[in-house]
Input
Amino acid sequence: MELDSLTYPYPSRRMVVYGRQGMVATSQALAAQAGLEILKQGGNAIDAAIATAACLTVVEPTSNGIGGDAFAIIHFEGKQYGLNSSGPAPQAISAEKLTKEGLREMPTYGWIPVTVPGAPAAWAEMSRRFGRLPLAQVLEPAARYAEEGYPVSPVLSENWNRAVQTYNRELKGEMFAHWFATFAPEGRAPQPGEMWRSPAHAATLRAIGETGANAFYRGELAEKIAAFSKATGGFLRYEDLAAYQPEWVEPISVHYRGYDVWEIPPNGQGLIVLLALNILKGFSLEERERAESYHLQMEALKLAFADGLKYITEPSEMKVKVSELLSEAYAEERRRQIGRQALLPEAGKPPTGGTVYLATADQEGNMVSFIQSNYMDFGSGLVVPDTGIALHNRGHTFSLDPAAANCLAPGKRTYHTIIPGFLTKGSKAIGPFGVMGAFMQPQGQLQVLTNTIDFALNPQAALDAPRWQWMGERKIIVERGIPEHIVEQLRRRGHEIQLSIDTHLFGRGQIIWRQENGVLMGGSEPRTDGQVAVW
Output
């Protein structure tokens, strides 16, 4: 893969960044600098990832929080390790109970979609196993920003304002008062350049750091979460928090044109990326700016999504094996369904047998692909009093249909949209990559990977390039910058194309690649306030 710095004619908003001793790429400059600060204090890539992730809960609360979930792929001393830190549904909730109350689908806000938060456990577990510095030291930059405040960045302010408008319309009841007091104390979102602070958030981060997250799951914070839940009609209990442990997993991969692409196995949707690549590798993508190249990617993605949405859930309850879905025989079967016209995707039958992303690297060769989320802006609309903990609404993706693989059940983890990615070649790590944005995530990853591997774009150019998103059936929204003649050719093939200038629809990505000479090269999403911090 020869990466040319000027391979794509779409106007680049930023230049690719190079460094040698360490690199952090994420969607907020202050968070990237927090990770770099920890590297300079003697921390490794794992410490830097934790520092950046914790800081993002402060400086980008529109997308993640202490009360969210997290996943990571860690490249440490030449091997990939996967961490699934998504939490299960409370023991007191069930699909049957909700349907008896008249619900037909999972609500978006309130206690019903709240599952056990996994992010603090992820930080503590990564620190325990691979970190070099004390967790309290690693979380201190985030705590400092929460305590002293920081100036809100432009895109963050825009997203914050959109969320406040939504929550003003949707959140009714006393249980949501703490969210407004924390994130809209003056009845509005902070403006660009305006300071925002949350001292309670700082105290919570310090408690997590000093106790290795024990305060969150079995201490004073757990007691506050449980008391708030009980007082306001929630299902989450102290026992749910106390029983939680993140899970180390073996990452799954496919071989694509000389590279190995790694994802976390289900309950995450990274499997969709691998399914699409497995289908796509049977075709030749000769040029990026050809209707055929777009068409093949779209069709492969649609077939992969159809399978993912049907089968992905808690691993022990999946109706098919991951190995069956990723078999060459099944890829060939799915590949044969792609013709010149846009198809309506359906799941196959294989033979039996609101999110933030960050990437870090250090001079020793360690690298981390990390993602955490509150889901759908700030999440459930619930903030635990006197803690700054905004609880996620990840359980919204559960089904209440008892026949569905992803049907809600006590202690079950739901289909998860957040997915960290990692690229290797042979035994060598190329690096971490990811694209935020709910169901855009596997679509963004697929496009970034083909831009990198098939079309030899450098990390920044791969992120700058205009994107598309499949919305269901034959509906595709495309970003400004895709040539008009290609759009028209895709329409003639049966794709229902809609142009959009709304950049938040197309995800936000970060990439770090390590070159043969050890030099790091990074790119950061131009559609947000991000930065590549380098040393």
Observations:
- The radius of gyration is 22 Å.
- Residues 1-12 have pLDDT under 50 and may be disordered.
